[in-house]
Amino acid sequence: MGPDAYRTAGLAETLEALGHAVADHGNIRPLDIGELTPPNPVLKNYKAYVAWTRALHAKAAELGEGPVVPIYLGGDHALAAGTVSGQAKAAAELGRPLFVLWLDAHSDFHTLDSTGSGNLHGTPLAFLCGLPGFDDLLGAPFEHTLKPENVEILGVRSIDDAERKLLLDHGVGVSDMRRVDEAGIHNLLKPFLDRVKAANGLLHVSLDVDFLDPSIAPAVGTTVPGGATFREAHLVMEMLHDSGLVTSLDLVELNPFLDERGKTARLMVELTGSLFGRRVFDRPTRSF
Prior knowledge:
The chain is α/β, with parallel strands linked by helices and 288 residues long. It has helices at residues 2-8, 11-17, 46-64, 80-94, 124-128, 161-170, 177-183, 185-198, 230-243, 263-275, and strands spanning 71-73, 98-103, 151-156, 173-176, 202-208, 246-252. Strands 1-6-5-2-3-4 form a six-stranded parallel sheet, sandwiched between helices.
């Protein structure tokens, strides 16, 4: 229902009003993968995770080599295991490095062994950065892993001890909300964008609803107080647009059941509009 909520909130119409051609590929279906035993009994919905990852990987690998900017709508942030891995495969085919900006309250860097909750939306970045134990996801070892130093997690404010050690050991870029408060969003994001540009990289942005403060975006099952403000979030999107570097986007973790008259879906659509070129003077005054 998350993808349909974005459609209802006018995502396609917002992009078309900015002069973009939009093609809706509809809702993807998971692959039939047969029987599968979880490597860790605590894991929840493991077979579904694998089935969705394989389907999304194939779709993203196809779209990533074309003259389009795919927007992947969800849904659980576990979908990034498929979307980003597919984009990484396409980037390798194009001979360019893939960078990832992870806008999220959580770092999602657990392995299938380190997770205590078994919630698989906490594992995609570990898989994408090549940590072991994930061969089931694509049915074979993932060949096009991200360089951890090419990943920047921005706005994080919930990391447990196991993830913290893994992040430090692998050199992933992490800017928590204290750094945001002290240095400012612009001063943290610009050096990362400069590195992407210098490397002639492709940039995938993965935007989780809980990157935003729950006071403005309540429609998420994992709310963490102290998130990005309306102004900070739009600044990030406008900087991304100005950079001209973004080649693919995830919009994830929208739960319409938890929304307040659709305000979270509308805000996410407005942020997408900013990423695709809408300026503050172009934005109509409205109540969120």
